[in-house]
Design goal:
Elements: H1 3-22, H2 31-34, H3 38-46, E1 48-54, E2 57-67, E3 70-77, E4 80-81, E5 84-85, E6 91-98, E7 103-113, E8 116-119, E9 129-135, E10 139-144, E11 147-154, E12 170-174, E13 177-178, E14 182-184, E15 187-188, E16 193-195, E17 198-200, E18 208-215, E19 230-234, E20 238-242, E21 276-283, E22 286-287, E23 293-295, E24 297-303, E25 306-314, E26 332-333, E27 341-349
Parallel strand pairs: 4-5
Antiparallel strand pairs: 1-2, 1-11, 2-3, 3-6, 6-7, 7-8, 7-9, 9-10, 10-11, 12-13, 12-27, 14-17, 15-16, 16-27, 17-26, 18-21, 18-27, 19-20, 19-26, 21-24, 22-23, 24-25
């Protein structure tokens, strides 16, 4: 390699590394951290779930922050996901920008249902391009056909949030305290939560119920799999995805999905920095004396109280951790470069 080529290669390498570091998206792990930056807090307060009526229909709206006053919009005809709207029902997608007057310029772009997706026209939606009055943290107000359509912000809570371990259960981690089954992991001493990248001691190879609560970081400028990424590896083998998938389609690589195996029935992901729950019923696979699998693993998952995986059978392990085996394994909370937090983790054998 000549000196000129080497020097050029080194320059490009250093430029790429420097650019990567310069563009690393900010990660906020608490509302207090968000509040330190007024512009970030304004976007954060607008992001969230809204409910209201327009054209005589109940509509749920997800407003997803992308940083710098930019947002994505998902409007669900019938209500919020799992609360009036279900996969296959009508959904309208679009974008919005916070203008200098403090209002949202909304441009709806696409409509999808069980028949597929198509670009919208004014004939589909009379208020295709609209301006919304914003009361951060409280409401969005549109003028539709001369009438006000007010969508009030709501914060749903999982019905199992804070659920205490029942009699006979083993607490793995709760409010800064590690249980007997806990093995490795770091505690957020300030919040008394558990950071991702943690593992338990092996569990018995028999059916169990697992309860776990998690908090997604707020990363408005991150995209796709870089947005509060973690995962709950059941038996250290089958990953139930943990990701900021708020307002998205609900694919097998998004929150509540099993990668390459099963997408959730409904995307029940709440906005980041809002505590969420998984309640998981797990039946391990069975193997004969020769190590041949004789029965598949079965998994049911409730996400924020809604069944998103209903007794699915796992054909094989998901990538990233351990192979299917008769050996004993525990629970792995994947570290994926983000600071996802966990709490109130317990297991009860069935």
């Amino acid at each position: 390699m000549t000196k000129k080529v080497f020097g050029t290669s080194l320059f490009l390498f250093l430029l790429a590394v420097g650019t990567a570091f310069a563009q690393a998206p900010a990660e906020y792990t608490s509302a207090a951290a968000v509040a330190k930056d007024a512009a970030v807090k304004k976007d954060f307060d607008i992001q969230g779930e809204y409910t209201g009526q327009a054209a005589g229909m109940e509509i749920g709206v997800n407003v997803i922050a992308d940083g710098g006053g930019k947002f994505r919009i998902a409007a669900f005809i019938g209500g919020l996901p799992g609360d009036g709207w279900f996969r296959g029902d009508l959904r309208i997608l679009g974008k919005a920008t916070l203008n200098e007057a403090g209002k949202l310029d909304v441009a709806l772009e696409e409509m999808s249902d069980f028949q597929g997706k198509r670009k919208l026209s004014v004939d589909d939606v009379p208020f295709l391009n609209a301006v919304a009055d914003v009361e951060p943290g409280k409401s969005l107000s549109f003028k539709i056909d001369g009438e006000d359509a007010v969508f009030k912000k709501t914060e749903r809570k999982s019905p199992t949030l804070g659920q205490k371990a029942p009699e006979g259960a083993s607490v793995i981690f709760a409010d800064g305290t590690k249980g007997e089954l806990f093995d490795k992991g770091n505690v957020n001493e300030e919040a008394k939560t558990l950071w991702s990248e943690a593992v338990t001691k092996p569990f018995e190879k028999k059916p169990y119920k697992l309860h776990i609560e998690f908090l997604l970081s707020y990363m408005p400028e991150a995209k796709g799999q870089g947005r509060a990424n973690s995962g709950v590896y059941i038996d250290e083998t089958y990953e139930c995805q943990v990701l900021d998938s708020f307002g998205l389609e609900g694919e097998n690589n998004e929150c509540g999905g099993f990668y390459q195996s099963a997408k959730p029935k409904v995307n029940m992901c709440y906005p980041p920095l809002q505590w969420q729950t998984y309640d998981i019923d797990y039946t391990p696979p069975k193997f004969d004396a020769d190590g041949t699998k004789t029965a598949k693993a079965k998994i049911t998952v409730k996400h924020n109280g809604f069944v998103i995986q209903d007794s699915i059978e796992m054909e094989k392990e998901t990538p990233g951790r351990k192979k299917e085996t008769s050996a004993l394994s525990g629970l792995y909370l994947q570290g994926h470069g983000n600071k996802v937090q966990y709490n109130n983790i317990w297991i009860k054998y069935q």
